[in-house]
Amino acid sequence: MGNCCSDVAGGRTAIGGTAGGLLNPGNTSNDAVDNFFKSRGYQGLFSQIELSFSASGLRDRDVLSKSDPIMVLYAKGKNGALEELGRTEVVLNSLSPTWITKQTLIYHFEVVQVLVFHVYDVDTQFHNADVKILKLEEQQFLGEATCALSEIITKRDRSLTLDLLRQDSTRSGNSQKCGKLKVYAEECVGSKTTVEMILRCTDLEYRDLFSKSDPFLLVSKVVENGDHIPICKTEAIKNDHNPTWKQVFLNVQQVGSKENPLLIECYNFNSNGKHDLLGKLQTSLVELEKLYSGGQGEHLFLSPAVGHDSQTKVLKSRLFVDKFSESIQYTFLDYLAGGFELNFMVAIDFTASNGNSRLPDSLHYIDPSGRPNSYQRAIIEVGEVLQFYDSDKRFPTWGFGARPIDGPVSHCFNLNGSNTYCEVEGIQGIMMAYTSALLNVSLAGPTLFGPVINNAAIIASQSVANGGRKYFVLLIITDGVVTDLQETKDALVKASDLPLSILIVGVGGADFKEMEILDADKGDRLESSSGRVASRDIVQFVPFRDVQSR
Description:
Layout: H1 8-12, H2 31-39, E1 46-56, E2 69-76, E3 82-87, E4 103-108, E5 114-121, E6 140-148, H3 149-153, E7 159-167, E8 175-187, E9 193-202, E10 215-222, E11 228-233, E12 248-251, H4 252-255, E13 262-268, E14 276-283, H5 285-294, E15 298-302, E16 313-328, H6 332-337, E17 341-349, H7 374-386, E18 394-400, E19 402-404, E20 413-414, E21 423-425, H8 426-440, E22 441-443, H9 450-465, E23 470-478, H10 485-495, E24 500-506, H11 513-518, E25 539-543, H12 544-549
Parallel strand pairs: 17-18, 17-23, 23-24, 24-25
Antiparallel strand pairs: 1-4, 1-8, 2-3, 2-5, 5-6, 7-8, 9-12, 9-16, 10-11, 10-13, 13-14, 15-16, 18-20, 18-21, 19-22
């Protein structure tokens, strides 16, 4: 088998196969394991998007024929510079082309992604040339359009029609309309169906001399050439011949289909990496569902050793499926397409770890020159995104970790100073409330996320109880030093069933390791102190320096 897990602790907590060795030899990328993580909902507020393009009413620039248009897609940076993302093919003799070539890009919720579209008429002498090497300055410019990717995504049918504009050389500063460009966005997810299973074995064989076995399961996909691609691995359970493992999650797209063959192997964990095969079973999701429905177990078997003529050995050991459930892993875009109204909430860290707000080195320092501090810049940057989504632009806004005048430390206080309501008007309202709060509170601590998360969860649960079609996003801006890590995990697990996502933006240069723990993109789902596992990952963490650099 090779070195599946390099140490005891790693092997016994190996759900998802995060250890090295067999599933990730030499720390190289393993697509099967990466896809397994993605199938478990660790996608955050971003999705892979495929854009399709068509145009109509283009200007005819050719004398004896119609134009031969090509479309070039750019991303516009914060400094105005254009970065080319891709080109379509050339459509010959058409003023209303529908291009076949698609462009795929990553849609990031937390970033304003400005797209620019240029349409050219390709000269006849270049028709046989590869579009990648075309010199655009040698082609005739037909027009351009621009929009934010979020403007396309937020449309119910995910399509947006834009006017193509071209500078009018006869009228300084004026632009002429020269056709229309239609852009259609589609999420690149083959299947959103995820199967959750709880697997159990009975009567496993003894392999350890002085103790019982330490079994774990390895689930692999069997591909056409007979190779096995590992896609899921349970934890190892110590000294148990009748183990029940924690739930595992398999995405149908990752497996191929419910009928595709799977190989389930049961191993006895050894710290040296030479794990003993206790038995195996070839099955499929369809067959596993039948085992669950019938309450029956399937016998494991062992194949004869290479070079031996003995028959396959059917073992007394059996595999049972104690839970089999299918669910649709809805994404952020599904909520938008389903007509859900988005509502945003903001929480700002006022703890003393940010530094004395009266000193220039503080993250909360208000510069008399008007230069925004780290928190103000984060509010402005993310605010550019919020305005595309929240219809009424009234944001519940809280602070945490500060001591109001003549009061105890509060871990969730209304930023506007009101005792009765927490909403402010627009991004400017957040900025004004933030500045005012700095004058009326003292930075304190400790840094507790739990209270603001619970407050947001109460609002989301009340909306669900009232039959509302609302999806909530809580933005937490923090310097990243968390005190109540387990309490925060408990709050997140409790909130994971609600229409709520949490975007944490880290400011400053603090250690953000604990934020990475809360964002389960690269590991297991969060588990509460009571042992409950989050139904989905609802946290996305991004350092503010990364947002700025995009």
